[in-house]
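Inputs:
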Amino acid sequence: MERRIGMEASIAMAEAVGLCDADVVSAYPITPQTHIVEHLSELVANGELDANFVPVESEHSAMSVCCGSSAAGARTYTATSSQGLALMHEILFIAPALRLPIVMAVANRSLSGPISIWNDHSDIMAERDIGWIQVFVENAQEAIDLTIWSFRIAEDKRVSLPTIVNFDGFILSHMIEPVLMPDREQVQDFLPPFEPLQRLDIDNPVSMGPVGIPDVYTEAKYVQHKLLTDAYGPIVETFGELEKHFGRKYRPVETYRADDADVLLLTMGALGETAMTAVDERRKRGQKVGLIKLRLFRPFPYKDLLNAIGDKPVLGVMDRAVSFGGPVGPVASEVKAALFSARKHPLVPEFIVGLGGRDTSIADFHSIFDDLFEAAERDTTPDPRFVGLRE
Amino acid sequence: MATTFSPISVFAARLMPKEQRFVSGHRACQGCAEALAVRMVHSILGRNTIVASATGCMEIISSSYPDTAWTVPWIHVAFENAAAVASGVEAGLSILMKKGKIPQRKIQVVGMGGDGGTADIGLQSLSGAMERGHDMIYICYDNEAYMNTGIQRSSSTPYGASTTTSPAGSLSIGQHTWKKNIPMIMAGHKIPYVATASPSYPFDLAQKVKKAAKVKGPAYLHIYACCPTGWRMKPDMAVQIGRLAVETGVFPLYEIEQGVLRITHKTPELRPLKEYTKHQGRFRHLDDATLEEIERRVLDEYRKLERREGLAL
């Protein structure tokens, strides 16, 4: 039976890892990820989770330990943020190439400099191409559900790829929210025991991580791309399983009051909840705005996104990171790439929002909606706007 | 030369385990003493071993897909993290055994890297793994420079050696820093076993590998690995040069067991340094004055080591 309780999102996530009976947790402390790994260490210290907690000397070693333990056949978890994720960068590419189904939470945070401990998506947007499955969550319940789901999809033999659960630092990680916490039995029913594709086994020796000469490298990368792209099917299927077991529905792309909307805004992560409140307020005024929420970031859900956009004339895209000197908003850039092949596509105004912990209010979303209506009226795309910029 | 060199009378191949775990067909250079050392180490460690290798010579020569020289499970992740990966394998195996998910038995986890992967880029990861007390062996195969990338200097390159990034020139004697002492840094971690070894002394090496495997907790082996290509010497002299390194005091063989140091191959009368350097192109540019300066320091370091024998470090 699930329990209805109030719990901080980070603690809820750690509890979910405990319910999944992770074998190895290896992590290095970094704000705002700390509460997850502190709670996991407590679970291990109190015998509530039978796992090896490996307190490493850096995030680079955290991901390296995860590669080693996952290759040994252990269910492996880590969590990090910001500079820590950046320090892992090199090894992040290697884990999927070795088909190691590690699960990691990223408490999204800005990147230095200037150094900032606060929330945005700069850390993960610098890691778009690492070859991991990536989802974003909006609240503590989603953090629980999709952590449990992450082990299931990562370890699915058709997939066997590492998976990241992105959740916004502080504005979600440190929020106490009411959640439905499943019990161990429910989780066990949903999540079968981990059976690795291959493992470091003295009875069946394998060499993992060999040299890829030019004759094989292209093929190795093609297979990796195809695996991650083809993971889409199992992702949708296991979202369905999740719904069957826990009653909550998840889709690669989710929408809110979008069907009859005149203008749309695309969000990713916890700010989607604030955006929903702003949408409701607009709707009360009779203005038809709607939201598209990108749940699955990798593999990128092209078809779902195009279906959600339909023939709407304006799609604003909210970005929480900057691609300097380039397309400005990394998510907008991907969305525009997705739209390029569509026969008809909307105007795509871009908004850079909530960098380095800058508070994003309902009023900010209203100013964005104003811009969207104006773009529709003028039938032109405004320049990308840094929302709330003080000049 | 052959007349002044003590014959390797003790070596008898038949006394080493016959079954190889690091097998022929790999792509090492002729006369590579590192490959020789790896072969010896793994014939001694045997079947129940899992290896985590750093990027480097031994990784590229042994694992070019679809070939492998390894008959034991082997994993390569990156350059600077072999110790962390090995510690992860150990953490994974031990919890799986504890939870009854795999059979309970002794599996020796071994991390390995070259001197660059150990003394330079991998030092932090190694320090972490040793400090955390994992039941594993880490082995540095020290060929005293970045040989895989073309003989660039590392912090393990000896004073005076000419490399491609510490070239001898009109204003430079080559490497101008003294070799970093990694075994002593490892001893500073208070791990149960630290030793230096050389494939030129196979029985000493075998003893140390066995001891390293036996201790509960981390063990560190620093193995001298003569590199004919990088040291610019004849490939057929690798074993001899390894013995001369010990006999001149350049690479003393010792072990530190539970903090107590013991020199395992005593050399009261060190041979003249020149007997070691004259065969190696990397030292060819050094004048007599510099060689004497190096010899004085080698002697000084050796005497210090002797004074520390039997003392708890």
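The longest strand of chain A covers residues 3-8. Flag for discussion at group meeting.
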